[in-house]
Amino acid sequence: LTWSDWQLLSPAPLLAFLILIKLAYFTAFTALGGQTIGKMATHIRVVSEEDRFVDPAHAIRRSLAGVLSLLTFGIGFLPALLTSDRRALHDRLAHTRVVSQ
């Protein structure tokens, strides 16, 4: 699309579409292997609290809770920096954790 084509699109549906794409990306990659492309590059993986693969329901919950962490101006990420188990709000809500490979 050219810039003039983008300007014809309504911002709300476009934003909703882009958010859905982002949520689908995080959910699918987390459910299928526990890793997004960035996690693959940094050799980390999302697992359940029992060190198993994350099932689709928990992957969806984690992705939606990640949005909540962002909407609170990043406050949802503070527990990962301040607590000993290093789990952010979205990990706590989805019963997941991030581990090194």
Describe this structure in words.
- This protein is mainly α.
- The protein has six helices and two strands.
- The chain has helices at residues 3-8, 11-33, 37-42, 56-71, 78-82, 89-94, and strands at residues 44-48, 96-100.
- Strands 1-2 form a two-stranded antiparallel sheet.
- Helix 2 (11-33) crosses helix 4.
- The longest helix is centred in the N-terminal third of the chain and has 23 residues, at 11-33.
- The N and C termini lie far apart (40 Å).
- The relative contact order is 0.14.
- The model has no long low-confidence stretch (mean pLDDT 94).
Distance between the termini: 40 Å
The tally of strands reads 2
Low-confidence stretches: none
What is the H/E order?
HHHEHHHE
Q: What is the alpha-carbon Rg in Å?
A: 16 Å
As a percent range, the share of helical residues equals: 55-70%
The main β sheet shows up as:
2 strands, antiparallel
The overall average pLDDT, rounded, is: 94
Strand order of the largest sheet: 1-2
Q: Count every helix, treating DSSP H or I runs of 4 or more residues as helices.
A: 6
Strand portion: 5-15%
Give the overall shape, derived from the CA principal axes: elongated
Structure class: mainly alpha
Features:
single chain; 101 residues; mainly alpha; two-stranded antiparallel ribbon; 6 helices; elongated
